[in-house]
Amino acid sequence: MSDRYLQFTQSAFGRQLVTKLGLPNPTPLRRFKPGEPLIAGPVLLGGSGRLADSVSATLQDVGADARKERADGERYAGLVFDATGITSSEGLRELYDFFAPSIRQIDRCGRLVVLGTPPESLSDPKAATAQRALEGFTRTAGKELKRGATSQLVYVAEGAEGATDSTLRFLLSGKSAYVSGQVVRISAADVPGISQDRPLQDEVALVTGASRGIGAAIAETLARDGAHVVCLDVPAQGGELAAVANRIGGSTLQLDITAEDAPDKIAEHFTERHGGLDVVVHNAGITRDKTIGRMSEAHWDAVLAVNLASQERIDAKLLGEDSPLRPGGRIICVSSMSGIAGNVGQANYATSKAGVIGHVHSAAPLAAKKGATINAVAPGFIETQMTAAIPLFVREAGRRMNSMSQGGKPIDVAETIAWYANPASAGVNGNVVRVCGQSLLGA
Ligand code: NAD
């Protein structure tokens, strides 16, 4: 589905008109392309905390040009500020001192990242307060930044300094094109040394609902990163499913995930055919919209069964005894903005997607015990067949009501999932990251 308004604003006449009328002026987003540098220009570093070495190591590894001194007139692909040294509200002034002169030097589709310490881990109330305050700053910066630039806050636990690499690569690159205003938490973890060119090399992944839309993009992206992907969908989608699997050198598993024996069938399939399983993406989902008073029992039950109960049952199997999930396993759930903000006509869907967030939070400690992680993405308006069917005016509102003034693409959700799936993301557990261009809803 193409965004004709965005195309129009790229013409000379269109640009002039939207500027004159003060209409949304979306910037075509720079997305990651294999072979291109991960970070497209110099990165200015600031702050004084415990993460300087971790940030420098990542920038050096990706061949980025790190600068410690701001120069007038220079454009920056990234501004990274280590705020872990801020221990009081007075210290927050450091943010102003660094960003006030530099923020306007951020390039088109540039990246702003602030690093902090999780407030809940600090015993000093003044330090915890100052660290919590960082959220207000980064979310506002995301709303003020123009031309496709993004802003994020990463809370890095003490002891997790060596676990930041995959997250910095993701947040500083075009892989996070449609992610902004987010707060990520990284906890201490053993991070394996692996090639970041094909981080999922020799791994086996399962993607549910993989025959089309976001699921097909997820399967393609995990295959790009080196995984053998088993594409799962209902038998009725068999033809499209096989086409996706063939395109990416993967295989298929035709199954209705709501079937009583689905968890056992999945476990059996991976144990027998692949000798194990590394990444599971619960992407399959349905909508059956009606306002609460008009909703049929069947519509309520179907949505809760596909979007929530089946995932809980499959994960109970995968996180239980006798499971094909290997150490370092990754479970990734697909929630939705509706699950965060609610949405008229979607009580069943919003309940199921809020439940997915609850599931991620409640299963995270068990996953950690098993050396695995469980996280969720919450997509906003993504250009798919599902959103193409929305009536024009509602669709236009959905597309523009975010800091990017445009919808995201399935690849944006897929890249976020690939970051969670990365073996180097071992410290990223129990997170919910919105892929919504910093939607104004539920912010
Ligand atoms: P889609 O309808 O194009 O694809 C969903 C897939 O899931 C289909 O191939 C379908 O056959 C499969 N599926 C449904 N029930 C199943 C079952 N019982 N067993 C196995 N497979 C089943 O949807 P999409 O737009 O690609 O969305 C993918 C996910 O992203 C869903 O969970 C959706 O709720 C979520 N999401 C989408 C958007 C968006 O803007 N498109 C926004 C937020 C969240």
TrEMBL record:
Boundaries of every Ketoreductase domain copy: 203-380
Listed transmembrane segments: none
GO molecular function term, any single one: oxidoreductase activity, acting on the CH-OH group of donors, NAD or NADP as acceptor
Domain of life: Bacteria
InterPro entries in the record: KR_dom (IPR057326), NAD(P)-bd_dom_sf (IPR036291), SDR_fam (IPR002347)
Xref: Gene3D superfamilies: NAD(P)-binding Rossmann-like Domain
Listed NCBIfam families: PRK08261.1
Protein family according to the UniProt entry: Belongs to the short-chain dehydrogenases/reductases (SDR) family.
Name of this protein: 3-oxoacyl-ACP reductase
